[in-house]
Amino acid sequence: MELKSIEMQIALPKSIDVGKQVQQLHQEGQLLNDHALNQMEKELQQKRKQVMKNEQKDRVHLKRKQNDHDELDHDRKKQNKQKDQEQQHPYKGNNIDFSG
């Protein structure tokens, strides 16, 4: 199938236009992929920040809980020490028996 010169004059510009359209479609697809990738990276970064915040809150909570527990232990030990000092000897008394 041979193309005449007039047909070639029509076919060449159309093929150039089609080539430009195909190139634009590829560029649009690439731009969409880049945009989607950027969006995913932003979401991932936000999730990481959220996880870091939660971990920090958990650490602070555990530290407070440990401090509270340590204070309670200290108070209990102090109370037990006071009770031990206050307790009387089981067979030695404070009263002296003069009857005799």
Helix- and strand-based class? mainly alpha
Measure the end-to-end span: 147 Å
Query: Shape from CA axes?
Result: rod-shaped
Q: Give the radius of gyration.
A: 44 Å
Q: Main β-sheet, in a few words?
A: none
Average predicted local confidence, pLDDT: 85
Number of helices, where a helix is a run of at least 4 consecutive DSSP H or I residues: 1
Uncertain regions: pLDDT < 50 for 5+ in a row? none
Q: Hey, roughly how much beta strand do the residues contain?
A: under 5%
Kindly state the number of beta strands.
0
Element-by-element helix/strand order: H
Query: Helicity, in percent?
Result: over 70%
Q: Helix and strand layout, with pairings?
A:
Blueprint: H1 5-86
Structure commentary:
The chain is mainly α and 100 residues long. It has a domain at 13-72. The protein has one helix and no strands. The longest helix is centred in the middle third of the chain and has 82 residues, at 5-86. It is rod-shaped. It starts with a helix and ends in a 14-residue tail after the last helix. The mean pLDDT is 85.
In short:
It is built from 1 helix and no strands. With 100 residues, the chain is mainly alpha-helical.
Features:
100 residues, mainly alpha, 82% helix, single chain
